[in-house]
Amino acid sequence: MMSDLLHIRLAKKSDIPAICALFRETVLTINIRDYTSEQVSVWALQADFDFLWLEKITETHFLLAFMDEELAGFASLTDSCNVEMLYTSKVHQGRGVAKRLITELEAEARHRNAEWLVTDASKTARPVFEKMGFTLVREQQVELRGAVFTNYKLMKDL
Question: What average pLDDT score do residues 25-47 get?
Fold first, then answer.
């Protein structure tokens, strides 16, 4: 694992193009393993809406992970301590990026005196969260622009 070589910092507006590129590429190349091409095409469209990403950056605890000055992943925590997003670039999969980001979000949640973390994890992300101690609450069906996705409500006591 290379997580000790990661640099973590809060996202800023100027990071949006890199965040969108990582998001799109990850959804289209990694999440395609667990979802159909139609589903990932719809999902990846979210990268086209800068205003959504600006909202996420300004309204959540939005962390970026860099390895060798390259964006390796990102994650966000809402005010209600929901891990809203967790994405790792295709070239940084399996290198401890997601683990480090979740660890950082857990520390922030503890700082806020939260009793637990929750997330709506994709099929792809579920094993990562479960390795970090999250447990299944329920399977869910969610709709995005007419496409229906299976994801999982997971929870972790802090």
Answer: 94
What lies within 8 Å, CB to CB, of 77 at 6+ separation is 60, 61, 63, 83, 84, 105, 108, 109, 117
**Encoded tokens for 79:** 């005010």
- Provide the token pair at 158: 């802090």
Instruction: Return the residue matching tokens 């979210």.
Output: 46
86 by Cβ neighbours in 10 Å (0-12 / 13-18 / 19+) ranks as buried
Model confidence pLDDT, tens digit, residues 51-62: 999 999 999 999
Helix axis angle, 16-29 relative to 37-44, nearest 10°?
180
How is the chain split among helix, strand and coil, in percent rounded to 5?
45, 35, 20
Q: What single-letter amino acid sits at 11?
A: A
b/e burial code for range 131-156 (CB count within 10 A of at least 16 → b): ebebeeeeeeeeeeeebebebbebeb
pLDDT at 3: 47
Mean pLDDT (whole number) for 110-127: 97
What single string gives the DSSP state of each residue in 89-105?
A: -GGGTTTTHHHHHHHHH
pLDDT beyond 60 at 39:
yes
Mean pLDDT of 106-117: 97
